[in-house]
Amino acid sequence: xxxxxxxxxxxxxxxxxxxxxxxxxxxxxxxxxxxxxxxxxxxxxxxxxxxxxxxxxxxxxxxxxxxxxxxxxxxxxxxxxxxxxxxxxxxxxxxxxxxxxxxxxxxx
Length: 108
Fold this sequence. Notes:
Layout: E1 7-10, E2 15-17, H1 21-29, E3 38-42, E4 49-55, E5 61-67, E6 72-78, H2 81-93
Antiparallel strand pairs: 1-2, 1-3, 3-4, 4-5, 5-6
């Protein structure tokens, strides 16, 4: 079993550790406008970044991305869960994860 880097938690208590793009798609698809209105993805230890997806009253989703180490805070809206999960997966891949081994480049 690999190291845990981050988790996705929904308002209704569902949790997925290190969620794949497909797992994020399922969690966002399960959102509704009454009792499961958001999903938050962040590292468990010392969360210096997070992403959230929330249902909008007028339809669609609000996506918030915050990374304190890079002084970034973006808020967007979207309607396509496919686009949201793809963009979040790419964005999360560029984040710093406490405890994750650093990449080393070696010349041969």
